Amino acid sequence: MNASTVSAPRRELARLETLCRQGALEPVGFHFARAVAAWGRERGMAGGGEDEDAALAVLAAALLCHLAGAGHVCVDLALLAGRPLPFDPARLAPALEPWRRALAAHPACGKAAAVSAPPSRIRETLTKSVRTEPVEVRPFVNQGLRQAQPERNPLGQTFLGGGAHVVDRPMVLDGHRLYLARHWHHELRVAADLAARMRHAPAVDAAVLEAGLARIFGDAEASRGQREAAAQATRSAVTVISGGPGTGKTTTLAALLALIVEQWPDGAAGGTAGGAAPRIQLAAPTGKAAARMQEAVRQARARLPLAPAVAAAIPERAGTLHRLLGLRPDGGSRHHAGHPLPLDVLVVDEASMVDLTLMQRLLAALPPGARLVLLGDRDQLASVEAGAVFADLCLSAAAGGVLAPGFAQLSHSFRFGDEAGIGRLARCLRDGDGAGAVALLQAADRESVAEELQWQSAPDPAGVVAAALAGYEPYLEAVRAGASAQELHRRFAAFRLLAAHRRGPWGVERFNAAIERALAQTQSLGHGARQPWYAGRPVMVAANDYALGLFNGDIGIAAPDPQSGELRVWFEGEAGDLRAVAPQRLPACDPAWALTVHKSQGSEFDAVLLALPDQPSPLVTRELVYTAVTRAKRSVRLWAGEAALREACRKRIERYSGLAGKI
Fold first, then answer.
1. What is the pLDDT of residue 17?
2. What CA–CA distance (Å, rounded) separates 363 from 648?
3. Under a CB-based contact definition with an 8 Å cutoff, are residues 20 and 26 in contact?
């Protein structure tokens, strides 16, 4: 067929197919674009769905899927218009207004100002539209674009407001932002829920509050920020507290919970058990983060001057969000809007790890009158899945949005003094001060921070492996000495090798393989190269197993069972106990000698070795390096070239979202 007779959408699909074969575009993006093209043809679009406007919609569909896979909630057409396409840098994106007009006219795209539809028909309509297309598009249609029936928020408002219910189209155009329909719904529901909760401020006895603040914080200048944060949060139904490592978030939280208990109508006001105390639940995205939260709250509670009844009302246990909601393999959950969580106060630590979909499910399951407290560090990496919810909430609140009354930014570091190396490096990274970071690292061996900071500016992968083996030597000694699984977990948490990439010469897969190969060659742990399992092998779960109660990110260590002598993999439970699983029963696992920085979120180590690639990478940003550095409590060894470090400081994570503007 002559190229001049091929329709514009078909030419666009041919370009996208080539990009897909080259690996620049994911298959799901190409197949979704084909589904949108078919939708335009079969829904009577002007020009029969074969004109240039239809081609612009096809391109937008592929871009939408591509960016969703990178963590974006939407495509910001205004920011991308006229700029190189992410999956095809040699080509510029269309101009804004023609692009918006084309999408607004396309039958596969609903407009946010007028999206009203009958009950959920999205799977039926999309499946019909692609009957002439390959079947592999359907799993994406069924899983990625499934819509729930219209719900009513238990707070009394329709989630979407304005009479808008369920969109029967796969995409939604909201101003200059293009969404997958499910992401648009989730974003709107999160914003509506939070705004509704903020309209119901809890009653506060000012005299009781002032007495509690004076008793807990006194008038110390260093704790002024914590005192102000606790005072604000006590008066708010939704609290958002952001702060870097060691800024006292957990102490502020423990104080806040004590103040809430003292304000509780039937609870332990004034420290006397006058009735039922509030039901408080502590939770975090991962098991390791929950364990850290649990221990930190326990220590903070013991430090504060609290009446026994008040202290007793602050829980000792923390759990994961997945277990709290009772998420099931089929995508359902035990708790939801129709069966809310039995609690009065929910506290979520490491909230920057919570993606948009999980936040929407969490809010839906939260009772109407319950308080919500979110703790995190807005400067850390965002969630692995779509969204940057915590950062968006902080941005909105700092700008005077509806969450402003319950927002606090803690800045004084109690862990790292003004001259501490890790704290100074973290500030340089947070502020994008590449020159300052380089100067600090160059002078580290001549200053008092030499024990905290070490920099290898001409790194090589073999040197990284050797340094990692040296870092793990205390752990390896414990394995050789036959230490208990509990002790092995403690020793293993003292050091970790972190990297930006999963694959490639600077990726964790290569580092893990090289470390295991070196251990086998030297028989350092008494095993050979053909033994996949050996005492001391650390693994990270890569797939959820609801039957075993193991979840993505859980760390296990292989060690003999004290009774039988058989090798088992030992996991730490939320209560600090250990449980053993036979290696053959485990879900998919990866060696955990080296972790990606993303996987390290929610964890802390005494020492961190961070290895960055010697070539520029879109993954290496100031947020990634900041997150890695702030995993360390005592020392950081950075293996990175100067150019790579400066480039990382220049780059910021940019996630397209409309949440901050909706709150």
1. 93
2. 35
3. yes
Q: How many CB atoms lie within 10 A of CB 266?
A: 10
Q: Three-state SS for 559? A: strand
Tell me the pLDDT tens digit for each residue of 223-266.
888 888 889 889 999 999 999 887 888 888 889 999 999 998 76
Characterize the bridge pairing of strands 578-581 and 632-639. Answer: unpaired
Show me where the domains of the chain are located.
3-151, 200-415, 421-650
Give yes or no on whether 200-415 and 421-650 have one common fold. yes
Structure tokens at 431: 């502020």
Tokens of 568: 């088992």
Can you point out the beta strands (E) in 43-202? 74-76, 84-85, 88-92, 109-111, 171-174, 177-180
> Would you tell me which CATH number, out of the four given (3.30.1490.270, 3.40.50.300, 3.60.15.10, 2.60.120.580), belongs to the domain 421-650?
3.40.50.300
What is residue 573's DSSP assignment? Answer: -
At 13, list the tokens: 């699909």
What is the distance between the alpha carbons of residues 133 and 130, in angstroms, rounded to a whole number?
5
**Token representation of residue 364:** 């839906």
Q: Are 607 and 471 in contact (CB under 8 A)?
A: yes
Residue 3 amino acid letter: A
Per-residue b or e along 157-174, where b marks 16 or more CB atoms closer than 10 Å to that residue's CB: eebbeeebbbbbbbbbbb
Task: Report the alpha-carbon angle 392-365-543, nearest 5.
Answer: 75
Q: Which fold has domain 200-415?
A: Rossmann fold (3.40.50)
What are the Cα distances from residue 439, in Å, to 358, 512, 636?
41, 32, 16
Q: By C-alpha distance, which of 111, 116, 117, 113 is closest to 173?
A: 111
Give per-residue pLDDT as tens, 34-78: 999 998 888 766 555 568 889 999 999 999 999 999 899 999 999
Specify the residue for token string 């009394």.
Answer: 156
Can you state the angle between helices 181-198 and 356-365, rounded to 10 degrees? 50
